[in-house]
């Protein structure tokens, strides 16, 4: 590529970039950014509520599982004691 072509690309990129900054900084663009940000925040709130519900459900499941294991341990202990008593008799 010739040096004239490189200079033309540089100048074109600079102009396009300058126009882009003006467009991105316009009032309409800011209004759009504001609406998009508000939508993202609403989405975040919804997701956080769902996460809290899942965490609560997991806590309930964990508590139930611990209760089941404690009950099984007591049953196994009772069977062990009965077997030990039968062996000594």
Gist of the model:
With 89 residues, the protein is mainly α.
Give the helix/strand class: mainly alpha
Question: Unreliable runs, pLDDT <50, ≥5 residues?
Answer: none
The termini sit apart by 103 Å
What percent strand? under 5%
Cα gyration radius (Å): 35 Å
Helix content range: over 70%
Number of contiguous helices? 2
Overall tally of domains: 1
The dominant shape is elongated
Mean pLDDT: 85
Oligomer: single chain
What composes the largest sheet?
none
Count the beta strands: 0
Order of helices and strands: HH
Sequence-ordered SSE layout with sheet pairings:
Blueprint: H1 3-24, H2 27-88
Structure write-up:
The structure is a single chain. The protein is mostly helical and 89 residues long. The chain has two helices and no strands. The radius of gyration is 35 Å and the shape is elongated.
For this entry, give a set of tags.
single chain; mainly alpha; 89 residues; 2 helices; 0% strand
């Amino acid at each position: 590529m010739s040096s004239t072509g490189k200079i033309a690309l540089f100048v074109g990129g600079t102009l396009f970039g300058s126009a882009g900054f003006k467009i991105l900084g316009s009032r309409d663009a800011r209004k759009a950014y504001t609406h998009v940000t508000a939508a993202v925040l609403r989405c975040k709130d919804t997701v956080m509520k769902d996460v809290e519900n899942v965490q609560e459900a997991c806590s309930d499941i964990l508590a139930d599982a611990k209760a089941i294991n404690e009950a099984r341990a007591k049953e196994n202990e009772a069977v062990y004691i009965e077997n030990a008593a039968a062996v000594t008799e």
